[in-house]
Every structure is written in C-alpha cells, then in structure tokens.
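[recover] target loaded
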C-alpha cells in the first residue's frame, strides 16, 4: 500500500486548530508546523482509500523530507 502526502493550511474552528477541509478517516497528521507561513499540517493518506481535500497541496516524499528531515523515518 502506498502513501500520499499533503500540506494543509491550519484553521481554527470552535477553538481547535485543524487542517482546512475535512480529513478522511484514514488520514494521519504527521506534524503541525505552527512556524510555517501560513501554519500547516503535514498529512499522510493511504492509497487508494481516501481522497484529499482540494485545498491541500500534494507533496512528494522527497519534498516532505527536505522540509522536515527524518519525519518519514529517513536519515
């Protein structure tokens, strides 16, 4: 099973910080980056179970590792 990665802008709703849109059930947040401009979540979806929200920005594993070294278990 392969994974797909996304950046999702953070929004505050009812006092809670969450990714913009509606994350599907098999979505996992790998990190919340409050220092990014704008603040964002790094999300992982399992293929082919879920579809990303259209507002999310698709990223490759290499892009994720470049921004957050070691987040995916790399060196």
């Amino acid at each position: 099973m392969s994974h797909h990665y996304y950046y999702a802008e953070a929004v505050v709703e009812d006092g809670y910080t969450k990714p913009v849109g509606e994350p599907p059930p098999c979505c996992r947040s790998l990190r919340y980056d409050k220092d990014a401009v704008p603040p964002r979540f790094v999300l992982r979806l399992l293929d082919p179970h879920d579809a990303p929200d259209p507002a999310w920005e698709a990223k490759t594993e290499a892009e994720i590792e470049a921004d957050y070294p070691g987040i995916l278990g790399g060196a």
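[recover] notes: The radius of gyration is 12 Å.
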